[in-house]
Design a protein that fits this description.
about 300 residues; alpha+beta; Beta-lactamase; 8-stranded antiparallel sheet; 3-stranded antiparallel sheet
Length: about 300
């Protein structure tokens, strides 16, 4: 197994452990996809299989970086979690839209643009790309910096994510490599860019108990979410494994990739592919998660 620090690797674990975990992660290379890169993160140790240079579309995995950037803006005082995003961007017809409710998908906004209300706030969890675009617009309006530039300066550069770019929507427009997402996962596990208090808030269920549809997996009685990351809770079916703790947090993207960290098992998993999410992913992703957790 390899220690990971600023893109370098060094052997630290017994060879038997290396073999077991590497075998589990290699299951990703059997998926029905043209290209895949996967990484297992256990404590400070990382195993990567597949291409480490290829840039993959992240789709909704982009939201993890966007949420982190927005929370950095909160700590800088640029915006507040209770600020009405609708007022900030001069769209009072959409309000009220508290920033924390936009990030946790309970503001009542419709899923996609043009932004419009589908329900009152706190009534149900409606997964909204449009909401993330409005949150980014609020940071852009208050900071005077284009959100793509803000994300580069606040997140990508400090984390040495040199192969990650945002082109288009802050909800779904980033591309990245497996190594860069390992860096992002490490930040989401043990942050350096935000305080421990803000991080706890980020991965804590916001307004628990709200029902809603988890894209690709149907209606969930408690579709629990944090400030950016989805939280596993007791959702079924789900894209993580049966062995994942309810506190597991992360995200997946329609482009065929996912990232999660399980704070109970103290390990994480990332996979990026060139095949859009579908039935194949709903079957293979949990299987890989359980194999890594077993090892």
């Amino acid at each position: 197994m390899s220690g990971y620090q600023d893109g370098t690797f060094s052997c630290r674990e017994p060879l038997a452990t290396v073999g077991f975990v590497h075998h589990a992660v290699e299951l990703a290379q059997q998926w029905p996809v043209d290209a895949v890169a996967a990484a297992s993160v256990i404590d400070d140790e990382v195993i990567v299989v597949g291409s480490r240079e290829m840039q993959f579309p992240l789709a909704s995995l982009t939201k993890l970086a966007t949420a982190l950037g927005v929370l950095i803006a909160v700590e800088e005082g640029t915006v507040g979690l209770d600020d009405d995003v609708a007022s900030v961007i001069d769209r009072p017809d959409l309000g009220p839209l508290p920033l924390d409710e936009v990030l946790s998908h309970c503001s009542g906004l419709a899923p996609d643009a043009p932004p419009r209300r589908m329900a009152p706030e706190h009534q149900r969890r409606i997964y909204s790309n449009a909401g993330y675009e409005l949150a980014a617009a609020a940071v852009e309006r208050r900071s005077g910096i284009a959100f793509g530039d803000y994300l580069q300066e606040a997140v990508f550069a400090p984390l040495a994510m040199a192969s990650t770019t945002l082109i288009g929507s802050p909800a779904s427009g980033a591309t990245s490599t497996i190594d860069d997402l390992v860096r992002l996962l490490r930040e989401l596990r043990e942050p350096r860019l935000i305080s421990a208090t803000t991080h706890r808030h980020m991965i804590t269920p916001q307004h628990p108990g709200l029902a809603g549809v988890l894209p690709g997996f149907g209606r969930q009685a408690d579709n629990v979410w944090g400030l950016g990351p989805e939280i596993r809770g007791v959702k079924a079916p789900h894209w993580t494994g049966r062995g994942n703790a309810p506190a597991t947090y992360g995200h997946f993207g329609r482009s065929g990739g996912f990232l999660w960290w399980d704070p109970v098992a103290d390990r994480g998993l990332i996979a990026l592919t060139t095949r859009d999410f579908g039935d194949w992913a709903a079957k293979e992703w949990p299987r890989l998660a359980d194999a890594v957790l077993r090892e």
